[in-house]
Design brief:
The structure holds two protein chains of two kinds. By secondary structure, chain A is mainly beta. Chain A has strands at 3-7, 10-12, 18-25, 34-39, 45-51, 58-60, 68-73, 78-83, 92-99, 108-111, 115-119. In chain A, strands 2, 4, 5, 6, 9, 10 and 11 form a seven-stranded mixed beta sheet that branches. Chain A has a four-stranded antiparallel beta sheet with strand order 1-3-8-7, with no helix packed on it. In chain A, strand 7 and strand 8 form a beta hairpin. In chain A, 41% of the residues are buried. Chain B is mainly β. In chain B, 0% of the residues lie in helices and 50% in strands. Chain B contains no helices and eleven strands. In chain B, the strands form two sheets. In chain B, strands 2, 4, 5, 6, 9, 10 and 11 form a seven-stranded mixed beta sheet that branches. A four-stranded antiparallel beta sheet of chain B has the order 1-3-8-7, with no helix packed on it. The chains are: A mainly beta, B mainly beta. Chain A binds chain B through residues 35, 37, 44-47, 50, 57, 59-62, 95, 100, 103-109, 111-114, and chain B through 1, 34, 36, 38, 43-46, 49-50, 55, 85, 87, 89, 91, 93-101.
Chain lengths: 121, 107
């Protein structure tokens, strides 16, 4: 079955760190751009980061730039999001997404079920 | 960054009605615009990409149109299963942005 499975969410203190992981199954992972989209409580969808097929180019929304780092390991069919200097406003459900093409920003045709991140003291 | 403005924020219509959602962009997107359906507790689902191309498996009552900075999602005959929040997303820029969402309800 074609799918994305996220892990790594949980509770972190303000200023703390978490690392999210996402594993892709039953598709050629290295042929597609990937990204992360989040949804805060009672809010809409927010694109936060994307990476192209070989990890050579990345993009970040301003609110996470300098704090979050996206990366991928095509040999492990895995996508990562290192989240540092966490803030309360980072509390959200984080979705791993697969692009339709090779770029860091694209239409997303496959979504994981999401992993919850809660930032609280 | 490109800003996306969706309207209306909420829409209530009867089964069988024709429903239209509008998305406006702060810059020319050419055709790089997608639409998603999101139901509570589920992952969002891609409906339409490149303004008007229907994703495989999406019912034909969904259609998309537009160009430049103004785009629309139309449901030709609203069904109970269409109750959801709908989002537009631009992928013209190297940074993506979503609209604020439109919640569709059945009267």
């Amino acid at each position: 079955e074609v799918r994305l499975v996220e892990s790594g969410g949980g509770v972190a203190r303000p200023g703390g760190s978490l690392r999210l992981s996402c594993v892709g199954s039953d598709f050629t992972f290295e042929d597609f751009g990937m990204g992360w989209v989040r949804q805060g409580p009672g809010k809409g969808l927010e694109w936060i980061s994307g990476i192209n097929v070989n990890g050579g180019t990345m993009g970040y929304v301003d609110s996470v730039k300098g704090r979050f780092t996206i990366s991928r390991d095509n040999s492990k069919k895995s996508l990562y999001l290192q989240m540092d200097s966490l803030r309360g406003e980072d509390t959200a459900l984080y979705y791993c997404v697969k692009g339709r093409g090779r770029l860091r920003n694209d239409a997303f045709d496959l979504w994981g079920q999401g992993t919850m991140v809660i930032v609280s003291s | 960054d490109i800003r996306m403005t969706q309207s209306p924020s909420t829409l209530s219509a009867s089964v069988g009605d024709r429903v239209t959602i509008t998305c406006r962009a702060s810059e020319d997107l050419r055709s790089w615009l997608a639409w998603y359906q999101h139901k509570p507790g589920k992952a969002p689902r891609l409906l339409i990409y490149k303004t008007s191309t229907l994703e495989i498996g999406v019912p034909s009552r969904f259609s998309g149109s537009g160009s430049g900075t103004e785009f629309t999602l139309t449901i030709s005959s609203l069904q109970p299963d269409d109750c959801a929040t709908y989002y537009c997303q631009q992928y013209s820029d190297y940074i993506g942005t979503f609209g604020q969402g439109t919640k569709v309800e059945i009267k």
